Amino acid sequence: MKKFILLFLLLNIYFLQGQQNGKVIYKIAFDEKAFDKELENVEDPVLRNMIYNNKAKKLKRYEWAKEIPFILKFNPNESIYYMEDILVPDNLSNRDLLRIKVNGRVLNKIYVNKKDSIIMFQYTALELGKLVRETKHFKDVKWKITPERDTILGYPVIKATKGRAMAWFTPDIPVPFGPGDDVGLPGLILKYQYNSNSIVAEKIIFSKKPIKIKIPTKGLLRTKKEGEEARIKAFHKLER
After folding, report:
1. 219's torsion region: left (phi>0), alpha (psi -120 to 50) or beta?
2. Which of 55, 114, 116, 169 could form a disulfide with 187 if both were Cys (CB 3.0 to 4.6 A apart)?
3. Are 127 and 229 in contact (CB under 8 A)?
4. Which residues 6+ apart lie within 8 Å of 33 measured at CB?
5. Measured distance CA(124)–CA(163) in Å, rounded
6. Residue-wise pLDDT tens digits, 124-168
7. Which residues in the chain come in under a pLDDT of 50?
């Protein structure tokens, strides 16, 4: 009996470890119904017309974007999120590519360390014209878990909200990560939505071996607050 219990515990630990090491492939999508609903709340007819005319451009951009994978690699304590390198189509402008990255919620890489409660953003700072790494703590994440339930990729998910953001997470994969820097939920985020922009998991690949995640080492290291101060300073210089 003791051997059976020990074997059961070992198998359970092995299963949980397998569920905490892996890779998620996300794709971004345009929620047209959410866009139209958002448009209804705009009272100014001129502004409403401008937003509506921008809809066609958005749809075209999302047509390009649906082919671009956004990757999240994770282990029990760390994750790293980035847009996969692709051959950019000739008809996709740098501005549209930047907007796609923004919709995917990452400019270069986002590294998260749960143990140290640190999020690191690596990107090219416009005010410097070079790569930087900015860090912030994520201890106080104010998510509101709702009673709404659904299923994504066969996993039961629970809806959580934070302001205008919505996230569907699964407790079946007990890691607090997801696309972008919204972390801290008791399960992997399989869908994230802000207004009409959605980021949805298309595939999860688990690893039997622990996944090693490298913290970004290139770029000037500063805090998020220092980065904000640098951007404000650069903005004031442009105004002169």
Report:
1. left
2. 169
3. no
4. none
5. 28
6. 998 888 999 999 988 656 899 999 999 999 999 999 999 989 999
7. 1-16
